[in-house]
Amino acid sequence: MTKKTTDKDFSTFQESIKGVKPLKNDRIDLYAHPKNTRPFKDKNQYNDTSDHAHISDERESTEVTGEEFIFFARTGLQFKTQKQLRQGKIIIDDHLDLHGLTIAEARETLLEFISFAQKQQTRCIRLVHGKGYRASTQKPVLKNKVNSWLRQHPDVLAFSSAQPKDGGTGALYIILKSM
After folding, report:
1. Which CATH number is 170's domain given?
2. Nearest Cα to Cα of residue 127 among 82, 173, 92, 166
3. Which domain holds residue 164?
C-alpha cells in the first residue's frame, strides 16, 4: 500500500530540514580522469619520423575473445607495478579510442599515439579497442591486433585489460618506457 504525502506532511518535512546544509564529499578521487580528446585530429603538432617496421601484422599472438582478460608484462617489471596496473591504480595520463577505425588506421594511430605519449613523458595510457561485438567473425579483430602489436612494441613495458569503470575487457591500461 502506497502512502500518499499530504501538504501537511510536506510542510512538516520542509520545516524540519530548514537550515540543513549538504555535506561536502570528503573522499579523495585517486583516479585522474583523462580529458576526452583525440590528440591526432591536428597532425601538425606531430611529426613521426620513426620506423614502425618492427611491428608486424603477420605475427599473431594467441587469439582472445571479447570478454577475455589480457595481461602482458616484460621481464623485469616489478610485481607491485604489475598488480597496480591490473587493479587500475596507476594514474592514466592520456587515452585513445580506436572505435570506428580500420585495422590500418588503428595501427597507424596507435603507433603515433605511443610515440606522442612518450614525447610528452606519459607513463600510463588507456586504450579503448572495443570487444568486437559488431565484428562479422567470432573473434574481435581489433582487440587481437592490438594485443599482438603491443607485445611487439619495444616501448611498451606492460598492458592489462581495464577495470569495468574504464571499459573492462574492451580497453587496456598500458605502461610505457620513459624516454
Report:
1. 3.30.1370.110
2. 173
3. 69-179
pTM: 0.71
Domain count, the chain: 1
Residue 36 identity: N
Residue 2 lies in a domain: no
Across-strand partners of 159? Answer: 72, 174
- pLDDT per position as a tens digit, 111-130: 999 999 999 899 999 999 98
Q: What is the per-residue pLDDT across 27-65, written as a single tens digit (0 to 9) for each?
A: 655 445 555 544 544 445 445 545 555 677 666 667 888
Report yes or no: 132 and 139 within 8 Å, Cβ to Cβ: yes
What are the start-end ranges of the H helices in 7-138? 7-16, 79-87, 103-119
User: Which of 12-16, 17-21, 83-87 is most confident?
Assistant: 83-87
Q: CA 40, CA 5: separation in Å to the nearest integer?
A: 56
Helices (H) and strands (E) in the chain, counts: 4, 5
The residues pairing with 94 across neighbouring beta strands, listed in sequence order, are 125
